[in-house]
Amino acid sequence: MIDPAAVRAHFPALDPASHGGTVPLYFDGPGGTQVAAEALAQINAYLVRCNANHDGAFRASRESDATVAETRAAAADFLGAARPEEVSFGQNMTSLTLHLSRSIARELQAGDEIVVTRLDHDANVSPWLLIARDRGCRVRWVDFDPATCTWSPEALAAEIGPRTRLVAVGLASNSTGTINPVAEAARIAHAAGAWCFVDAVHFAPHGAIDVGALGCDFLACSAYKFFGPHVGILWGRQELMQRLFAYKVRPAGDEPPHKWETGTQSFEAIAGVRGCLAYLEWVGRTFGRGPIASRKDALRAAMSAIREYEGGLSAELRRGLSTIKGLRIHGITEEARMACRVPTYSFTLEGHHPRRVCEGLDAAGIAAWDGHYYAVEVTRRLGLDSAGGMVRVGAVHYNTREEVGRLVDVLAGIARSAG
Question: What is the pTM of this model?
Answer without folding.
Answer: 0.97
